[in-house]
Amino acid sequence: MPEGPSVRKFHHLISPFVGQQVVKTGGSSKKLYPATLQSLWLQDTQVHGKKLFLRFDPDEESGSPGSNPLPEPPQKGARKEETVAPEPALGPSRLKTSDESCPSVELDPSGSDVPEGLGKIPATGAPQWLQVSFGLFGSVWVNEFSRATKANKRGDWRDPVPRLVLHFGGGGFLAFYNCQMCWSPSPVIKPTCDILSEKFHRGQALEALGQAQPVCYTLLNQRYFSGLGNIIKNEALYRARIHPLSLGSLLSASRREALVDHVVEFSTGWLQGKFQGKPQHTQIYRKEQCPAGHQLLKEPLGPPGGFQRLTWWCPQCQPQVPPEEPQQLQHP
Ligand SMILES: [Zn+2]
């Protein structure tokens, strides 16, 4: 799924449409009923981690004056975060990411069983936020549709079908692909956890990393590292020279700090590259060798019963901690 830098780019693409009315809708979403967005005004958009939030109001006037953010350059990051509600306390056993917070599962292309009412815009009152979570091939397109880049197994060139298309009064349109959408009363992700937010709280992140569990599990936990995905995980661990299965509690404070530095540096660089049209350079993700020429190891890693993510590491540049322990994962 797109990681924080990609979703921030989507947010940047959507921002110019804030303040415009939806004049026509389309898309394949069976849960959301795209037609319910007809005539609503897009009054705000926010990005938190890997999620986008779009606020719709029935009236043009209901948006607070001057609240519409301008398209935001990546360096400035003048985001609005005052509507963020606190998150419920997190129990220590809770290892799941917050990616499942949408009540509907729309990534299934069949989209068959549709519970009644889930997609209806909630009762009026508070402003309504459309929460968008992206799937593996999730994307947002502006004023054009995604096209097939290759034929499928049967040899057909079939273009991807957007989940949601919003045509605006200004003449432009947005198309959302491979995403899961639901209504929420407010964006409920803390900006202090967002690795690309100015409010990202390093102390909180360092504390989370100090848990007695493999750091590669903690890094993907969106409650602590919102926006961090598998590419950032692999690259930051390599750059910090930390073995993915190192227990955070065994790492020194300075090594944990170095890891957080690499997370932020890599993510910020990736985001800036996106605005300059440059692809992000990876050192080990999907590679055979590390930059020093060592053979990489690759294995699905994740918490017991949790999602296992393919992880790359260099057994020489990223030795197990503590080093005196037998290195069962050492490459011959
Ligand atoms: Zn190496």
UniProtKB/TrEMBL annotation:
Class of this enzyme: lyase
A biological process from GO: base-excision repair
Domain annotation Formamidopyrimidine-DNA glycosylase catalytic: ranges: 2-183
EC number: 4.2.99.18
CDD domains, A to Z: MeNeil2_N
Keywords carried by this UniProt record: Acetylation, DNA damage, DNA repair, DNA-binding, Glycosidase, Hydrolase, Lyase, Metal-binding, Multifunctional enzyme, Nucleus, Phosphoprotein, Zinc, Zinc-finger
Superkingdom: Eukaryota
SUPFAM superfamilies per UniProt: S13-like H2TH domain (SSF46946)
Ranges for region Disordered: 56-116
GO molecular function per UniProt: class I DNA-(apurinic or apyrimidinic site) endonuclease activity; damaged DNA binding; DNA N-glycosylase activity; microtubule binding; zinc ion binding
Functional summary from the UniProt entry: Involved in base excision repair of DNA damaged by oxidation or by mutagenic agents. Has DNA glycosylase activity towards 5-hydroxyuracil and other oxidized derivatives of cytosine with a preference for mismatched double-stranded DNA (DNA bubbles). Has low or no DNA glycosylase activity towards thymine glycol, 2-hydroxyadenine, hypoxanthine and 8-oxoguanine. Has AP (apurinic/apyrimidinic) lyase activity and introduces nicks in the DNA strand. Cleaves the DNA backbone by beta-delta elimination to generate a single-strand break at the site of the removed base with both 3'- and 5'-phosphates.
Subunit architecture: Binds EP300.
Protein name as annotated: Endonuclease 8-like 2
Organism: Marmota marmota marmota (Alpine marmot)
